């Protein structure tokens, strides 16, 4: 009995190992995304957008590279929105699944460590959503589809100063999240440079698992800021904003792109209506290819795609473009991966649904940001577009 | 300055109420069984989810008004959550107790049960968060720069009432007397004709029922539910119970408020980055000075 079991196990293991060899005419791309954990909706959006793109291309017979059609195969690996799991997921995709390139992780907290793994292993990684500069800094194998926090920070500052007539600001951020902490610090520096030292009257932090922010908010409200900047994930925003209102705060908030999830309004409700945040694209009032993407996504999955969905679509298409630029695939993993890196680095400009982008020498796109306002019906409405000089 | 101190006291009372309510559950079970029920934080989470489903059922299916829904949700949540607690006792702890297993194994089993509850939730309901529907209209009252809502006051009052109720049960009723007897001598009690298993079940009913109530109030105050919401607050409430003197009801109650107050006050007067560091250093110092906790007495009857 035990021998039979061992034999069976060996056989099935052998079969598993043999699978990559069977599937020769496919292009395998890994997705390192948060399907569970703190921000599951982000992972879901990424997966849905990728599935839609895969169906498009496989439905048309596959991706043409060097005169030959290849079917796409996407592998979704859950990084649980944790830094350490993102590293494990990246290694699994690289070593076990032998993917040609990796899309994700989305949040900087995971993208910064996973980027190191991919760079060390010589595998192309493109993060759709990470905005922290460290993700791509000095890492020739790592790219991204989103703008950077050093660009987003000033966008938020300028918009708030102009729209709210703000002289002072307060910041509440997540200490254990690279994205939140980095953006909060950039915002503080830019704001103080513009409005004078001490104009950021409160700079408070919290932990990722925190649910009560009343002490921080009491401190912030006592400092009487003109608005509160909250560069936090949508799930925390949904707790922070209502709690501030219950502590008697009636002023403005300004948010960042991590607010832009399809789930923000179901969690936050009325308290978030009328607030502004900077993000990658505005779904309400979109035109052209962007509108087409939104309509198809909505018809297929039942809700308006958030920025992560749109950015994943763009990021994946950048990878496919890179593969096509590589000219041909040899089937030798290291060589192909290198060719894809060259292929992506050769892309000078790219027309995505989140706007057109050019890549600089770090692998970062130079693209515009938009500021959206949450309407009374809970839609993210275009308010202003800010482009880099 | 005064306004913000008063404001922080209210914040601390509300936040401490949750620690106190959960710590009471730890302390009850520990008092009777000398078992640290590490699954208790997750029972609290299950309570919040049960409250969510019960409330949405009453709201959407029957279309009842908010206050009536709340009135129905409170008993329903407490009963259903106490069933979860009793099930844990029946399935996991009682067989081990029957086999005379060392307490250490029961504690580890409790840890496992907590993980099972978390991941069962994740597997069944998925990773997406749930937004708890607003049951009552929250009104913000501002008196002299201090803001509070009717819900906050309700939470604090509930915590106090629960404490008084449990104190009464344990000191004045027959069940309470039996609980104290078991805690005093596990071996003599069955000989006296006291149905030990029934008393233990009653302990779990009380502990889990109030964890369910805490879950409901928590979901109303912080209306974003996720499978891991009980883990951290459960550990912290356990620490609060230990600092208060685990096994003692007054200890759990005061320990909970103490932890809430320390956490909030640290943020109010220090950079918020230091919150857990300073808060738990303070608790550590308390325990070093008084290892049995504030109300703890080494090796005697507790509860």
UniProtKB/TrEMBL annotation, chain A:
<feature type="domain" description="Leucine-binding protein">
    <location>
        <begin position="26"/>
        <end position="378"/>
    </location>
</feature>
<keyword id="KW-0732">Signal</keyword>
<dbReference type="InterPro" id="IPR051010">
    <property type="entry name" value="BCAA_transport"/>
</dbReference>
<protein>
    <submittedName>
        <fullName>Amino acid/amide ABC transporter substrate-binding protein (HAAT family)</fullName>
    </submittedName>
</protein>
<dbReference type="InterPro" id="IPR028081">
    <property type="entry name" value="Leu-bd"/>
</dbReference>
<dbReference type="InterPro" id="IPR028082">
    <property type="entry name" value="Peripla_BP_I"/>
</dbReference>
<dbReference type="Pfam" id="PF13458">
    <property type="entry name" value="Peripla_BP_6"/>
</dbReference>
<feature type="signal peptide">
    <location>
        <begin position="1"/>
        <end position="23"/>
    </location>
</feature>
<comment type="similarity">
    <text>Belongs to the leucine-binding protein family.</text>
</comment>
From TrEMBL, chain B:
<feature type="transmembrane region" description="Helical">
    <location>
        <begin position="199"/>
        <end position="222"/>
    </location>
</feature>
<feature type="transmembrane region" description="Helical">
    <location>
        <begin position="104"/>
        <end position="128"/>
    </location>
</feature>
<feature type="transmembrane region" description="Helical">
    <location>
        <begin position="68"/>
        <end position="92"/>
    </location>
</feature>
<protein>
    <submittedName>
        <fullName>Amino acid/amide ABC transporter membrane protein 1 (HAAT family)</fullName>
    </submittedName>
</protein>
<keyword id="KW-0813">Transport</keyword>
<keyword id="KW-0472">Membrane</keyword>
<dbReference type="GO" id="GO:0005886">
    <property type="term" value="C:plasma membrane"/>
</dbReference>
<dbReference type="InterPro" id="IPR001851">
    <property type="entry name" value="ABC_transp_permease"/>
</dbReference>
<feature type="transmembrane region" description="Helical">
    <location>
        <begin position="12"/>
        <end position="36"/>
    </location>
</feature>
<comment type="similarity">
    <text>Belongs to the binding-protein-dependent transport system permease family. LivHM subfamily.</text>
</comment>
<keyword id="KW-0029">Amino-acid transport</keyword>
<feature type="transmembrane region" description="Helical">
    <location>
        <begin position="253"/>
        <end position="271"/>
    </location>
</feature>
<dbReference type="GO" id="GO:0042941">
    <property type="term" value="P:D-alanine transmembrane transport"/>
</dbReference>
<dbReference type="Pfam" id="PF02653">
    <property type="entry name" value="BPD_transp_2"/>
</dbReference>
<keyword id="KW-1133">Transmembrane helix</keyword>
<dbReference type="GO" id="GO:0015192">
    <property type="term" value="F:L-phenylalanine transmembrane transporter activity"/>
</dbReference>
<feature type="transmembrane region" description="Helical">
    <location>
        <begin position="148"/>
        <end position="170"/>
    </location>
</feature>
<keyword id="KW-1003">Cell membrane</keyword>
<dbReference type="GO" id="GO:0015190">
    <property type="term" value="F:L-leucine transmembrane transporter activity"/>
</dbReference>
<dbReference type="GO" id="GO:1903806">
    <property type="term" value="P:L-isoleucine import across plasma membrane"/>
</dbReference>
<dbReference type="GO" id="GO:0005304">
    <property type="term" value="F:L-valine transmembrane transporter activity"/>
</dbReference>
<dbReference type="GO" id="GO:0015808">
    <property type="term" value="P:L-alanine transport"/>
</dbReference>
